[in-house]
Each structure stands twice: as C-alpha cells, then as structure tokens.
Amino acid sequence: MLQGSLSELVITDRKEADMGRKRKKRRRGCLTVILTVLLVTATLCVGVIAVGIWGLNDESVRQKIAVFFPESLKKQTAAEEIPYQTVEFDESIFLKKYYYGQLSKKEQTIYEEILQGVRDYAGEIYVHSETAEEVNVLFQYVLKDFPEVFWCDGASKTTVYSGPQSYTVLEPVYSYGEEERAKRQEEIEKAADECLEGISEEASDYEKILYVYDYIVNTVDYNLDAADNQNIYSVFVGRQSVCAGYSKAAQYLLERLGIFCTYVTGTAGEGQPHAWNLVRCDGDYYHVDVTWGDPVFQSQEEKVKNQSYISYDYMCCSDAEIFRTHTLDLDVPLPECKRMDCNYYVVNGMYYTSYDSQEVLEEMNRVIASGENPVVFKYSDDVLYQEARRDIFGSLIQNAAQNLSNQYGVSEVKYSYIDDDRFHKIVIYWQYP
Fold first, then answer.
1. With helix as H, strand as E and coil as C, how does the chain read?
2. Mind listing the pLDDT tens digit for each residue in 276-335?
3. Cβ neighbours of residue 413 closer than 8 Å, sequence gap 6 or more
C-alpha cells in the first residue's frame, strides 16, 4: 500500500511556436512554448494518474487522460531513505550563472540536484522539493544557464510525493541516447573551437561580442523547420536554427570567451515568443539579439536590392532601444541596461545625438570617395530623425549623388535606402560603376 499521496503530476512539453509564415515572410520572434498541466489528486492507495500531451499545432493543445493500475508500486515508509541526487560540482561553475544567482539556498540545492541528474543522464532525479511547479521552474533555469546541455530541451514528467518525507521526482526527456550525445558533443566542440580560433583572447569585450554576433549571423540560416532548433547543435553543426538556438549558441561562445552572457525570454514583434541575450560589456549591461541581426528579419520595405544587410540595432543596446519591439518575461528581475556606449552604431560613429546637415553631407561624400557601403545615420530620438529625414530626402541625397556622378564620370546615379522610423535610422547604398 502506498502510504504517501501522489499530490501532483506535471508533464511539460516545449515546442517552437509556429509563426505560420515562409522564410522570407516570417515575422520576428520565436521561442519554445512551455506547457505545464497541474493535476491535484486525492490520496491514492494504488494507481497512477498519467496525462499525455501532444501537439501544439494550429495554436491548439489536446490532452488525453488515462488511468493505469500497475501490479505493484514502490511503497514509501517513514523509515525509507530517499535517494536524492548526489551533487558533485566545483562551485566556480556557478559564478557567472545569472539564474542560479537569483535563487535562495534551498532553491540552489534543488537546482544543483537537477543539473547533476541531467548531466548524469538520470532517468529519475530525486530532489528536495515539495511542489512540481518549483521543480519545473528551476529545471528551466538550469537550461537557461547551461546552453551546453543540448541533449535535454525541457520536456519532463514531475511527480510529487507527500508523506512522512515529501520529495519530488523529475523525469527528464532526453533527446538522444548517451552514445549519440557523446558523438554530437564532439561535433559541437570541434565547430566551436574552429570558430574561436578567429578571435584573440586579448580582444576587448566589445570585439568578442561583435565577433560572435557576426559569426552566427553569417554562418546560420533561420529556419523554423530546422532539426534540433532548440539547442546549439542546430547552430554549430546543422547551420540552421531559430532564436532559441541562436541565443544559446551566442551564450555558449561568449562564456567560453570569458564574457558574462545569459539567455532571456519574452516576446517580440507582434507578440511572438522570443529569446535573446543579456551581456556585460566593459562593466555595463546590454541586450544582444543575434536572431534579429539576420537579414531574414528585415521587412520587405527594408530589403535592399542585391545587398545582404546585417542589422546591428541589437548589437549591445539599451532597454529603451530593445523595448520598442521586445517585451521581457517577468520570471526573474534583470539588471537595467541604461547605456548605449557599446552599441555598434555608437562605436562606429553612426549614432547622432544632434543634427547637423553639413555633417550628414560630408559623411555621405566620405563614403562615396572611399567606394564604401552603406552610409548609416541613426538618431537618438524621433525629433532628430525627422529633421534628418526631411533634409536627406529633400536635397542632401541629391547633392551626394551629384558628387558621385562627378567623381566617377557617370550620367546616371542609382542608390537604394532603408528609412526605418522604429529605430530612427536611415541607411543608404550607392551603386558604383
């Protein structure tokens, strides 16, 4: 006879939200959807209630409930010793783990037990918790802190036993067997090592962050149907992923480079679930969204003919910048991102806090003289942007085009541009003979 009671049983499932659009027409944003179902049951003498959950297609969730009566169940007695997960960690691995640092001592103990169990490929992880909700939340924090745990995407069954000794058993779903995991681990590490050969350990924080940003945008294609798209294998080996893969890969590489980086979730664009990163650069916190740097996320109006334009609006930006299009989940408080000093456009002299028409014309002429592309003007507020916009499209761009005509001896000058009112930004591409 089961002396304790099976008080809660939770099955969680994660799946990339389907935005229902083809690659060239996708809206920004993607993220795993976490589904948690709580069942509070009466005390059971024999039997287990199981909930099967499958499919998140067409925004619908279907549930099936079945009752099983196994021939025998393990009995809990007052004297029974619960086989809690034995933890064997060097505490230094948690020093830069953001979610771990937000927890109480008790929660950290549970977190460590979960991490150890997942690393050991344990089928059942016994933890010091009395609620399934707490265990599920901490399980997600483990995965947010450790992008290298690619063999587990968060799907699990969580059972709470109450009685003389209350405890919880977490049963993670592993995506691969241990042999396959080892093989994929080698592939990931080889690809990551090759990537990091291209950046010096002596590089600045900004240089390291920019290097990782460009590497992922330039080597990975955004694809909702990509295999393993919730983990870093899809980025380093498959070279196709979604925002979860992009952000976890950025975190993995930056942590190896000694940069503080964590994984954050929320919504973006038209309320689509999304993931990006929070980094520390030269002592200050910034948002980094590698996914939205990918040209696939430019709207049709933004696309420039024959150009592959990487957006750097989210390459180290402030709260004020990112919250124009993104909204954070409120699971844990995040440090404020107040500065723009390490933003790509600021560092490269493309960010303006005042307007000077002569300065704008000189910058266009400088780019033309060097045969470069593009010329970018990003303004700190809408007032400046609107003033610049009137001047640039009113007369300055024609003056610069005349200069290009004189310099290259051509009678016709062609150019393309992006006029982005969301980010107060104007980008111009010149066509050279």
1. CCCCEEEEEEEEEEEECCCCCCHHHCCCCCCEEEEEEEEECCCCCCCEEEEEEECCHHHCCEEEEEEECCCCCCCCCCCCCCCCCCCCCCHHHHCCCHHHHCCCHHHHHHHHHHHHHHHCCCCCEEECCCCHHHHHHHHHHHHHHCCCCCCEEEEEEEEEEECCCCEEEEEEEECCCHHHHHHHHHHHHHHHHHHHCCCCCCCCHHHHHHHHHHHHHHHCEECCCCCCCCCCHHHHHHCEECHHHHHHHHHHHHHHCCCCEEEEEEEECCCEEEEEEEEEECCEEEEECCHHHCHHHCCCCCCCCCCCCCCCCCEEECHHHHCCCEEECCCCCCCCCCCCCCCHHHHCCCEECCCCHHHHHHHHHHHHHHCCCCEEEEECCHHHHHHHHHHHHHHHHHHHHHHHHHHHCCCCCEEEEEEECCCCEEEEEEECC
2. 999 999 999 999 999 999 877 655 445 555 455 788 999 999 999 999 999 999 889 999
3. 401, 402, 404, 405, 430, 431
pLDDT in tens, 37-72: 333 332 232 223 233 232 223 332 223 323 333 333
- Of the candidates 93, 103, 52, 76, which has an alpha carbon nearest to the alpha carbon of residue 169? 76
Token duo for residue 192: 């990551």
Query: d(Cα 219, Cα 98) in Å, to the nearest integer?
Result: 28
Adjacent-strand bridge partners of 428: 375, 417
CB neighbourhood size of 89 (10 A):
11
- 263 DSSP β-pair partners: 277
CATH code 3.10.620.30 for 186-347: yes
Is the domain spanning 351-431 CATH 3.90.1070? The answer is no
Backbone angles phi, psi at 155, to 5 degrees: -70, 140
Query: The tokens 């950046």 sit on which residue?
Result: 199
pTM over the 0.85 mark: no
Same fold: 186-347 with 351-431: no
- Domain limits of the chain? 5-178, 186-347, 351-431
